[in-house]
């Protein structure tokens, strides 16, 4: 492509129905790295602060897309003038990133830009161009896809809950919820756009932090009961790969329950869904008011001018946006609740529940459980759907926890199912508490876990106990002993949900031999793998205060994990420590364990020698 300026060139990738285009991307190789440009429509030039269009945009907060029509945040003439259009020169706010091959940002420049050469592609067309060497934009889009995959891998390695399943059409959004993609978005073109915009927003936020310029940061926190995002993602990928639709829906429901809504504010609190220290929304100023407000601040900062918004005014704007978005969320919930009640009333007397779509069936089932009046045939259909793996978490939990006499046989089957799949019990605990509290739950005040090493056994064991607090009550599980913390937690939760449901407790403890007080074998058999041997020494009491610490270094595609293991010998108080490295946590842990085992057994051998000499 001759005679072009890469800094003024871009590709707009949008849905086929998009009319308000506000971003374009371009990427070029530069040595071993990339030069990336993200162009954002310079809407601030067309919407004077405090003018009529600005006032209306502040009230509307964002563009509302409906099936029947779109209600734009800005007037149509402003959208037409400010939007990016191919075939004309466009004033933009440009973000230029210089990255190395691993996706590390080496430099970021922000400021006014221009887009003088551009193309428009749908997501699907961009995906096809990236795969077709004959396409005129193939080289750029193939590189763009490589960049997107590199950035995605870096975020995932940092622990982000980032998941795309283009075959089934599910992906995680910024807030850690699973959302269904439109059919036109189930391709790599969608991933390209998402990762470029996340990169731009993250670097804009980082610039604002470095320059100490308050903007509207996008802050997000997961619920305390959500768990590690990386573990949630791994569980999600395992279930998706197995094609287990029932487990997938249960996890999807659980993720929706523990997700929190992100909010805007002039101070930084991090974005846990994306696992980024600072984040903002700045790439859609035509359709989001926070992006427009932030763009005004960025333009002023790039020109060396003070922010047009004092901090208190910025906070007031953030509070207003948050309140409007939350009010819309509540109104939407109430609207669908009302519609659900109307539909349930129409279907509750039906004689053929098997013909009901799942959403309607779930409402009828919930109504029957709540009222204690079960129509003929509903229990049989619930049993059929349970046997087919169709019952989702909400309906499973309702019947299991609250079902009355008519559901007794099904509840027993569910209890047996949980005994076989105890990892699902913690989700049932969450449902129960949310029902009691009528809202979000907290590990600090509502659900309390005690998980610790259990001494006194020949092999390593962990003890777990869980308690829930609500309405001045405390209900707790018995302690459960297992060979690892995860299994111990699952068994404790299994015991608790059985108590809450008034059903037989199917939980249990791992079998282990108690450590005797008399003479005992000191050294672990040489055939036992090093990590397990170290744990056995800790379980036998020879090693105290055992800890494992991990760190990760290197580029996203060549991660090196380092494990440091250390503890103190009970007899003599000698401190023992070792480090190991490898491409995975497990290999690093094994390497560290191998060395630590030598230190432990050397100390034990010296201790025995000293004892015999003293005797």
UniProtKB/TrEMBL annotation:
<keyword id="KW-0694">RNA-binding</keyword>
<dbReference type="GO" id="GO:0000175">
    <property type="term" value="F:3'-5'-RNA exonuclease activity"/>
</dbReference>
<dbReference type="GO" id="GO:0003723">
    <property type="term" value="F:RNA binding"/>
</dbReference>
<feature type="domain" description="DRBM">
    <location>
        <begin position="529"/>
        <end position="602"/>
    </location>
</feature>
<dbReference type="Pfam" id="PF00773">
    <property type="entry name" value="RNB"/>
</dbReference>
<dbReference type="InterPro" id="IPR012340">
    <property type="entry name" value="NA-bd_OB-fold"/>
</dbReference>
<dbReference type="InterPro" id="IPR001900">
    <property type="entry name" value="RNase_II/R"/>
</dbReference>
<dbReference type="InterPro" id="IPR014720">
    <property type="entry name" value="dsRBD_dom"/>
</dbReference>
<dbReference type="InterPro" id="IPR050180">
    <property type="entry name" value="RNR_Ribonuclease"/>
</dbReference>
<dbReference type="GO" id="GO:0006402">
    <property type="term" value="P:mRNA catabolic process"/>
</dbReference>
<dbReference type="GO" id="GO:0000932">
    <property type="term" value="C:P-body"/>
</dbReference>
<protein>
    <submittedName>
        <fullName>RNB domain-containing ribonuclease</fullName>
    </submittedName>
</protein>
